[in-house]
């Protein structure tokens, strides 16, 4: 019993010994992929700039809403920002991450890695770290662009916005890991990811953000991870309540999908 306790930390250390070099190598490989860099870092800012400058009236304050509405006096482009931030997370979680693991699985990378001292689990954590950091960089850039280009108002409840964003990341990356667990070819990952991603975009309000979102879309969207994240950030940004239902929905998605992804994950 004593021997097992003594050797367990050493075994764990050996298992993760190559994590740093693997992270550096995979990060360099990822940076060479222009598509990942573009959609992960630049795309949210480009969407904001395109919508803000190409569509008339997006930078004019909303005055036709009731004076006691959370939207009164807010610019339409500001109401678009929470949805863009949710989209930034979903793009990497649902579209990029499954393709990466499907490629590894299709080329036998995971199978070969399992025969070396480096555990395959390390590769999962490495790419989660890469995608999470990329998401944070893309979101930070979008926030800077929004402030410089449009002077977007600051959140009325910063803590709620941060909590909603964090839960959105957990729920959407849990969904991405589930897709990563079951797809075995890059083409399949692209097809399945698209079938999931674009309905999520629609229900999150990408085409009907904030005050122009129909009630039916809002009601359905609040039960999806991306829609719940966008609506919760809306409340934290412009409102004074707490998005309890949306937070519960995101926690539920995470609690269900993450263990399921771990159980279904295949190395070959």
What is the number of domains? 1
The ordered string of helix (H) and strand (E) elements is HHHHHHHHHHH
Total number of strands: 0
Structural class: mainly alpha
Q: Please state roughly what percent of the residues sit in beta strands, choosing from under 5%, 5-15%, 15-25%, 25-35%, 35-45% or over 45%.
A: under 5%
Which residue ranges are poorly predicted, with pLDDT under 50 across at least 5 consecutive positions?
A: 1-7
Cα end-to-end separation: 35 Å
Shape: elongated
Overall mean pLDDT score? 87
What is Rg? 20 Å
Tally the helices: what do you get?
11
**Largest sheet: number of strands, sense, barrel closure:** none
Quaternary structure classification: single chain
Share of helical residues: over 70%
Describe this entry's structure for a reader.
The protein is mainly α and 268 residues long. It has one domain. It contains eleven helices and no strands. It has helices spanning 2-15, 19-31, 34-54, 76-106, 109-113, 120-150, 158-182, 186-204, 215-221, 225-238, 244-264. The longest helix has 31 residues, at 76-106. It is elongated. The two termini are 35 Å apart. The model is unreliable at 1-7 (pLDDT under 50).
